[in-house]
Known about the structure:
Layout: H1 4-19, H2 28-38, H3 72-75, E1 87-97, H4 107-123, H5 129-132, H6 138-149, H7 175-178, H8 184-187, H9 199-210, E2 214-216, E3 222-224, H10 254-258, E4 272-277, E5 283-284, E6 287-289, H11 296-308, E7 312-317, E8 323-327, E9 330-334, E10 351-356, E11 358-371, E12 384-388, H12 390-396, H13 399-405
Parallel strand pairs: 1-11
Antiparallel strand pairs: 1-4, 1-6, 2-3, 4-5, 4-12, 7-11, 8-11, 9-10
Amino acid sequence: MMTASSRGSRAAASFLRTSRRSHPHICSDCISHIRARSLPISTSLPTPRTRSYAVAATSLKTLTPEPDSELQHLSSQKPISSTSTQYVTKAGILLSRAPLLTAPQTSFEKAFYFYQKRLNERLAMPWARYFYFKKGTPSDADRKLKEKERNGSVARELGGYRAYGDEAWHDELLSTEADAGVSEETAKLGLGKMGIAEPKYLIESLVKDAKVRAVEGKDGQAVEVEIKEGEDTEGKEGVDDEFRVEKPLSRFTESDRKNDLRKLDRKLTRTLYLLVKNKSGVWGFPRGDLEGRENLHQAAERILVQSAGLNMNTWIIGHVPVGYHVSPPRLIAKHDTSTSSSSSSPTPEPELELQRPGAKTFFMKGRIMAGQADLAENHFGLTDYKWLTKEEVQKHVTTSYWAHVKNMMADR
């Protein structure tokens, strides 16, 4: 079945063939294009039918305005000169001495370790005494004297607790035992009076047990050596070397007693940090400007040598800073006499002139293994130095400086 559109196209094609001799043979598609270019709109020829969903493309008008090339929020700000910068990058050094001793034990730790020692005595098998000590020898007599004083207990620091006696179950620390062995030095630590669980009592028990109590006499028999309670034989003339017992060193040094803040042998359980004082009397960590193309690691090594001298064996840890401090620049108002003094116009904001640039200091972490600081030939006009803990650093620096550097330092 032929549609109306196909009949109209065939009629137009036959009309064009008879009217235009230049196109004796033409198809229906070409007829429609030729007719649209050559025939006027008022022609009586039937127009070809188009599909209802095919529409001519129209120019769409955008609803959003064209973007403004000028940023209005930046037009009121004054241009910044590229020749003068408001901040200078600096490198600093956080030089520290690591703790040399373990931290003091808390009351809970003392009670826990003491209980573990007594529990170990209950779980351990009895040891064969005569496998190690021959009967009738001075060493066997020495062992018997010492075990008798500690109620037959093998352990020296458990306060006479017998793991295989009738009261072996009674292994907890009593209040009466806690009252024993407390000294003024342990009481000053503020960690609680744990008595025989204190490390001080443990040291005294081991030193007392190490003293020789029986020696071989002239006839080959064991002879007991009389040593008075609390007698210190160290350094005395006429006392044989075998009776001297070398005691452990104290956790508190002479620098702690004198409160010498320049010594490195103080506060052995804490981390110490090098703090220096400049010519203005302000305390802080060593710092300086970067020179040439050096990075922060290289600058920290140079600044440390120029600040504290060469008499130190140090090590700069890593190439990444552990903290920073920002010193704001100092700006002053610039007076302009060319502006009009009319009262009707609003007073413009005065221009600020840079008087002194600020500083952004990045601190590198370092360790000291040996040596001591020496400010005799420093390049920064430093007048004093101290080795301080974290709490002591807070007392020497300003509040704003402490807010920047407090998280760089360890709590211990």
